[in-house]
Amino acid sequence: MRVVVDLNRCQGYAQCVYAAPRHFVLHGREALVYDTAPDDADRAAIERAAQACPVRAITACADDPADDSADRAAAAGEAR
Amino acid sequence: MSTLFERFLDPDNRADPYGLFAELRREPVCRQEDGTYVVGTHAEIDRLLHDPRISSDDLPDPQHFRWTGHPITDLLVRPVRAEIRKRHRPFIFRDPPDHEALRGRVMRAFSVERVRGMRAKTERLTHDLIDKLAGKARIDLVDAFSYPLPVTVICHLLGVPPEDEPRFHGWATQLATALEPNQRGDEETQIKNEETFAEIADYLQDLVKAKRREPADDILSDLAAGDDAERMNDYDLIATAVLLLVAGHETTVNLITNGVLTLLRFPEHLERLRREPEIAPRLIEEFLRYEPPVQYRTRLALADIPLAGTTIPEGAPVVLLIASGNRDPARFADPERFDPDRRDNRHLGFGGGLHYCVGAPLARIEAEIALVALSRRLREPRLLADPPPYRPGASLRGPSALPLAIAGIAAA
Amino acid sequence: MSAHDPGRIVIVGASLAGLSAAKALRAHGFSGGLMLVGDEPHRPYDRPPLSKQVLRGDFGPDTTLPQPADLDIAVRTGTAAAGLDRDGRAVILADGERLAYDRCLVATGTRARPWPNPAEAALAGVATLRTRADAERLRQRLRERPARVVLVGGGFISFEVASVCRELDIPVTVLVRDAVPLARAIGAPLGAFMAEVARDAGVDLRLGAAIARMEADGRGRLAGLVLEDGGRIETDCLVVAIGAARNVEWLDGAGLAADRNGLRCDRFCRALRADGTAADGIFAAGDVAHWPNPHDGDALVAVEHWGNAVAQARIAARNMLAQDPAGMVPHDHLPDFWSQQFGLTIKLLGLTAGADAFAVVRGAMAERRFLAVFGKAGRTVAVASVDSARWLPAYRSAILEGAPFPPLPGGLDAPRRIETQVLEETAR
């Protein structure tokens, strides 16, 4: 998976830390550090964290099936 | 002619207060006849939750009561009681810097490990409570499930022996009136609250002593521990314990009950939860928006606060009408629709700012486990009364009973 | 782009701004071809963690940004754009290939400003920190526990890396030419505060210090530094953090108003031609854009921050889909940024440029938990928070309303007396 947190929004409520402590950690009172590339197997925990964020600062997505940028680029080239 | 807010407080409107909010939001900051300001729009509530000119220390000062004419009462009993009450103010009614210190201690005791450690026990309790429904065709979900689950959990976390738990039922109901300004103002309620508080404090004092002698892995032991310098004083310790117990008795019960009620009103979501338990987290956030267990909180303006074309004057009580902000069309698309898939659901169900609900992570765990299990195990649940009967509280709002017909219980 | 043919949009820059624009275009219903071109070998990734948690090794170094599965975008990585043919409506790639567009978004961002002496910059052990590759190399180097890391530059990257070094218990020296670090971003009083925090954490912070020359060992590896004051520091690990340069060179000859300040654009994020009129179909967003900020009297700014990249990309995307200027919305983002260092979170909201007054209004510097405000001609223009983020929303409103300085008088956790400091021009 891929995760990004809008830390301008984050106010350190730590709800994500309770939901997914292996992926979100508070460093000091407000400094959130987090796993930017968690395992797909941890999807439920990441979803709980994203949903629990009071300011909705967490965006998470399943990773692209494969890094197929080359194929897509080729397809786009043809489309031209 | 009563004001909109008075109509909201009226128990006759308890089952569906939401219709009143649209009218109320026309004036985002609305002065009541008694000088209270009611704020019902999302942006303004959110702003005030983060405004340092807003105090949470808004409990009425008992010194302001009218004189009774009895010198012992007026000159001795009342001032002493006032002093005791003041010292027993729990941290939700405190401001920085005291609030930070007290809340910090509580947060450390409510550690990630400890709260998450409650998952297994909550699962077990949930299934035990559901097992007991076997053979019944009609149940009251509140009595049989929504109440006992969070109560058992909070007592366990705090370290209250399970056999003592029944004593808290009446105490918690009484003390919850401290959050209802329409009830807490009258002197009779105040006196009753003080008596109740004295009883519960006596009980907890003994329990704290026991925890100090023999610490266990629970929150009370943690709070009671430490050397003199960093230890909470006993007033704060008791006040904190009472707060956590009351909150544990009076809020999560409503989250679970409101959740089941909403799922039965919108059965497609119940069906979906049964098939896809992984949607539980977003359902719970939408319950917190749609039917928040805490409908409003009160504050006090410490300075003149210009807001949305009005100025809230210094000293004015302020009502933050969370339940209305959660249905504000300026913030939520199609706000009257129950929609767990809505994006950017920045609801105010757990408050915000310095006083964001300490128990939120625990409530989420309990609600998720409870709702997933109920959705799978209650066979053909049906509401027997819609709306169900409600408890009197307008702030801590929830059904007093949720009578259901069921066709049986599925295996765990 | 006619109503029937949505056309093709090419986004140059596989960046946060580029990806944010792509997401916004799809969210606004754009159904045409979408292509993203970037010179690095990665899909769009997040940079802020690189100088913090990635270096510290809290989690893995892969910070690829979430990309919705249904984004339907062709991502062309490892391919630099080399030119823009405005008349022919094509982006020209380094390999000569032409990518036709109907609309083009320039989001090429910035690169680390290299050390001015090329021979010294080429020494092994002399690094910059901007890209994922930079971060992975430095992370590896820190794992080998260098005897001393030296940072040159008095900005956030310097302080964040120094913080990580101290957390890893690696000796670190920070060389700052100015008398106060971080002053340009957060003003002299906060810069002085952070200097004290850094020193308390064991950073060897040298102010008014500059490198006269570097010394190499026999194998082209950095061995030490000689300072202008004659002092010498032994190190084989130097991180050059002296700012960023905007990636506009590829636009040379395109007839656009691009210079070292960035690609000039109007409030609708439309790129301007050299004559100051809007170029047809070309937009800009993120660090590379040089735009008029309505919160500062339309003074031109280039904002090198995460929040602006996202906000500006969204506005640009929306305006790219507008049929005419009447349907466009202005970019009026209030700049914001944050930094994590030495266990503290610093957040800044607003523009400190030209501020003439500063005051701590909540908490206290001594407690390392406070809120400070910046005033300009009697109005509140910015607020800074150190571990006090929950008060920021109220101050955001105060800035947007142009509240008198200091704003929100009275209330909780205020100092007994609010002391306003006058900010000197030089310290701003």
Structure description:
- The complex is a heterotrimer of chains A (80), B (412) and C (428).
- Chain A is α+β, with helices and mostly antiparallel strands.
- Chain A has helices spanning 15-19, 43-52, 69-79, and strands at 2-5, 24-27, 31-34, 58-61.
- Chain A has one domain (2-79): 2-Layer Sandwich (Alpha-Beta Plaits), CATH 3.30.70.
- Helices cover 32% and strands 20% of the residues of chain A.
- Chain A starts with a strand and ends with a helix.
- With 412 residues, chain B is α+β, with helices and mostly antiparallel strands.
- Helix content of chain B is 50%, strand content 8%.
- Chain B has helices at residues 4-9, 18-25, 42-49, 71-87, 98-109, 112-116, 118-131, 141-146, 148-158, 165-175, 181-184, 187-213, 219-224, 234-250, 252-265, 267-275, 280-290, 322-325, 360-377; strands at 29-31, 37-39, 54-55, 138-140, 297-301, 305-307, 310-312, 317-320, 382-383, 403-405.
- A five-stranded mixed beta sheet of chain B has the order 1-2-8-5-3, with helices on one face.
- Chain B is globular and about 65 Å long.
- The N and C termini of chain B lie far apart (54 Å).
- The mean pLDDT of chain B is 91.
- By secondary structure, chain C is of the alpha/beta class.
- Chain C folds into three domains: 8-111 and 245-327, FAD/NAD(P)-binding domain, CATH 3.50.50; 114-242, FAD/NAD(P)-binding domain, CATH 3.50.50.60; 343-427, FAD/NAD-linked reductase, C-terminal dimerisation domain (Enolase-like, domain 1).
- Chain A binds chain C through residues 1-4, 6-8, 10-12, 23, 25, 27-31, 33-37, 59-65, 67, 69, 72-73, 75-77, 79-80, and chain C through 33, 35, 43, 46, 48-49, 52-53, 56, 58-60, 62-69, 73-77, 97, 99-100, 306-307, 310, 336-338, 340, 343-345, 347, 369, 387, 389-390, 392.
